[in-house]
Design goal:
Number of helices: 2
Structural class: mainly beta
Radius of gyration: 19 Å
Helix content: under 10%
Largest sheet: 5 strands, antiparallel
Order of helices and strands: EEEHEHEEEEEEEEEEEEE
Number of strands: 17
Strand content: 25-35%
Length: about 240
């Protein structure tokens, strides 16, 4: 059985807990802050590599790639830690359908607006680079109380999508040679969890790296990481 705070009035209420562990915290305690998703930028930068992918119908339909045939994609790890004091609880597609997107080729339920991968040129213009920004959000440590059927990330736990996972990439097949910013943003719409709890801090949900894309004589792209990357601010939030 899952242990935790079983009182819905507490700010660290665990909706999955069936056994109380006397850990409940109530307002106005300073510990009643909420969840805080933090993107692991070190794991992201250290895991980047270029790979080829033969595009299938679902890849194109879901926007993972921008065309058929052999695609060249930069893939990477996305590790999201919940460093807050409460769980980030999402729930199930059946009980909270407004928080999920099931309009996709595979028919899977994806949490809406969770991960967003963007490629910008140095003038700040968004460059089309296929990817999929919906995921199953689950615990990958501890008791693993959250899973694809009842989603969330426990306080002190993390969720991770490894490099090479399908659609865990950006498609640079048709991106012109040049310098670009690759930005990774999680919960970009600043959504509260299903219990209405907002994150403590949204500034740590995003990171960016500057890359240079070039091609060889056969037209095969490659990339390098640039040592400096001037800050870019998305003024729309």
């Amino acid at each position: 059985p899952v242990t935790g705070c079983t009182d819905p009035l507490a700010c660290n209420y665990n909706p999955l807990a069936t056994v109380s562990d006397s850990s409940c915290i109530y307002p106005p305690s300073p510990l009643c802050a909420g969840p805080d998703l933090k993107f692991d930028s070190i794991a992201f930068v250290n895991s980047m590599f270029l790979m080829t992918h033969i595009a299938q119908t679902c890849d194109v339909t879901e926007g993972c790639v921008l065309g058929y045939g052999t695609r060249y994609v930069i893939t990477f790890d996305s590790k999201i830690d919940n460093i807050g004091t409460t769980d980030y609880y999402i729930g199930s597609p059946g009980s909270n359908p407004n928080m999920f997107n099931t309009n996709n080729c595979h028919g899977h339920a994806h949490y809406e607006g969770y991960g967003d991968y963007r490629l910008y040129d140095m003038q700040g213009t968004l460059v089309p680079a296929g990817h999929k920004n919906g995921f199953c959000v689950m615990d990958l440590c501890g008791t693993g109380q959250y899973h694809c059927g009842d989603m969330g990330i426990s306080a002190g736990c993390y969720d991770e999508y490894g490099a090479g996972t399908q659609c865990q990439w950006i498609d640079i097949t048709n991106v012109p040679d040049g310098d670009y910013r690759l930005a990774i943003i999680f919960n970009s719409m600043h959504l509260p969890d299903v219990l209405g709890r907002h994150e403590m801090n949204y500034a740590n949900n995003a990171t960016q790296i500057c890359i240079r894309i070039t091609r060889n004589a056969q037209g095969v792209p490659s990339f390098i990481k640039l040592p400096t990357c001037s800050p870019f601010v998305d003024c729309t939030g």
